[in-house]
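Lecture 7, part B: from sequences to assemblies.

Below are the input chains for today's worked example.
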Amino acid sequence: MISVRGLSKRFGAKYAVADLSFDVAPGRVTGFLGPNGSGKSTTMRCMLGLDRPDAGGATFDGVPYGQLDRPLHQVGALLDAGYVHPGRTGRNHLRWLAASNGLPVSRVDECLAVVGLAQVAAKRVRTYSLGMKQRLGLAGVLLGDPHTVILDEPANGLDPEGIRWIRDVLVHLAGQGKTVLVSSHLLSEMALMANSLVVIGKGQLIEQCTVDDFVGRYGDHWVRVRSPRVRTLVEALTAGGASVSPIDDVTVDVRGPTAAQVGELAARYQVTLHELSTQTGSLEDAFLKATAGVQEYSAEVLR
Amino acid sequence: MIDTLRSEWIKFRTVPMNVVLLGIGAGLPFLITLLTTLLIDADDMDGQDVLELAVGSSLITAMLLGVIAVAGVAGEFGFGTIRPTFAATPRRMRVVGAKVVLSVGVAAVVQFVLIAVCFAIGSALITSRGGSAGWADTSGSREPIVGIVLFAAIVSLIGVGIGLLVRSTPGAVAILILWPLIAEGLIATLLFVARLDTVAEFLPFQAGNRLWFFDDGSLGEDVVLGRWTGGLVFLVAGAVVVWLGALVTSKRDA
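Predicted structure of the full complex, as structure tokens:
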């Protein structure tokens, strides 16, 4: 269990994180979302004691990170896959990391095999692609078999197979009862692997809830109707105040009434339905709606 | 602390640039000793001369060991590896301590072994060419051997401190090299003009150079700092730089 309480971090006069509090429960993947510059990475660095917070802090099962003895056994973190010396081999990078926490070299080789880098372990990191560095970073996370895993944008640079692999790894770790906190801009991926979300904007908490609750609260909802007599139904729906968007000659999206209400209306007018389904917007749509107004950097549409 | 030391030792050994710098640092004095004792008239050198040659030419080793110490710290900030380092060992002073012990220890051992090898091979070459050079010739002036070893260790101590303060390898290396070569010389000249020669003696590297000086009476009678008092001033300067570096490291974001 990770508990962040009253965390604040200022750079000059500007607060990157302001009085942020949230919890990350074990046994589930918790997505850490926020627009660029919202303070996600700063929060993670403060949690690990790398940045010194101006107020508040984080605890891991009640213990501040700085007080953990041999922390790799308890918390595995990957903040940036680029934090490696390019002249070292991948294996030697893990060796010094393992030695710092009293882990045997055999564990290094095990983790290299798990992330699929055993074949290139003796090559210098400067020859690695970004995806290979991400895998190396993940091997470092797994070294101490920690019960808490913190990852900042772990899918950066990974190919589709790698993205699926990291998703499977994180879901597997959460399935083992571990606490998993992961930030990512790949919201479609987050929708597939996360159970819970912590959403921040401008350093402050916007929402902490399950993914379903988040999408339910911020996402768009509508009813899709397909019928050979769709025009009859559309007339009845618009007369009742519903908003109707045509998809094709026989299909419309209806906003306003529920699927049950549309079904009852269709029955009243004896309209045969080929499809009647509730549609829900994506996590991306919900995220954009939730963070509208707290974007640090917003771009204009190209014309 | 043992885990941290072991980790730092692996880091030290697995950066190719360290091996290159060590090779240059140890190779140059070795080459100078080898060529000098091969080419000079064997009757012109005795054991004392070989020792002075080994100590004098190994100054470059001491400075390059300092550069390695600088890179071992500043490079961590440059490549970002300081973050996984502090994430793996959150007690930052433990990391700083391990870097100090390792840098100072490696510098002392390398410097001592180099002097011993240079002296042994130089003496052997002189003797093989019909001259006479042996350990007995140095009986009156062995203190500079200890002195140069301490000098190298303290330069590395200062290197760690500058690395912690500056966090940029090029900047920190420039300070370590240019301070004794240019800055202290300029300051010493100004102090000399201001008739403050005694103060100039307390400049860190001016004082530290006393450690390896072969006393031939050229220092004069007005000199305040001797070999060990000069070394103490140098050590204090190194300790202050490291202390400041550690202080900054404990407070700053990684």
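Note for the exam: The longest helix of chain A spans residues 160-175. Keep this in mind when comparing with the next example.
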